[in-house]
Design a protein that fits this description.
This protein has about 130 residues and is of the alpha+beta class. The chain has a single domain (about 5-130), classed as Alpha-D-Glucose-1,6-Bisphosphate, Chain A, domain 4. It is about 25% helix and about 40% strand. It is built from four helices and seven strands; from the N terminus they run E-H-H-E-E-E-E-E-E-H-H. A hairpin with a 6-residue loop joins strand 5 (about 65-70) and strand 6 (about 80-85). The model has no long low-confidence stretch (mean pLDDT about 95).
């Protein structure tokens, strides 16, 4: 299993970045290569991806700036990627994104998924600036 950690600096305060990133409805606004749309059915969120529809859930903790992004084909087959947002001590924030390779996912596909994280950071910057 491969692990990739990407870090980005934001001029916005941690609470601003957290407020945007922690809302699952905003996923298609910043994870544009992953999430085409989000829909809610009861208590379950579904994300339309290029590979089809999957279950998506966010487990969040604002105090710790934590967003655990869990996704998969069913509730018992969820895989997690982790976001941590914290102060840069100068009024801005740092976002760490930890990506874990899913079981059965080949190295090429995992590397391609991680390659778009820089673009997603720019999407976040643009969205929170408007």
């Amino acid at each position: 299993m491969n692990v990739t950690v990407k870090t980005a600096k934001f001029t916005a305060a941690p609470d601003v970045v957290f407020d945007f990133v922690s809302k699952i409805e905003n996923l298609p606004l910043w994870a544009t290569n992953y999430a085409k749309s989000v829909r809610k059915d009861g208590d379950t969120y579904y994300v339309e991806t290029s590979m089809g529809e999957i279950i998506q859930e966010f487990v969040t903790n604002e105090e710790f700036g934590a967003v655990n992004m869990n996704a998969g084909p069913s509730r018992d087959q969820l895989w997690s990627w982790y976001i941590r947002i914290f102060s840069d001590l100068f009024g801005g924030s740092i976002l760490n994104f930890t990506a874990l390779q899913m079981p059965g996912q080949n190295d090429v596909d995992f590397t391609a998924q991680c390659a778009v994280l820089e673009e997603e950071f720019e999407n976040i910057r643009t969205a929170i600036a408007s």
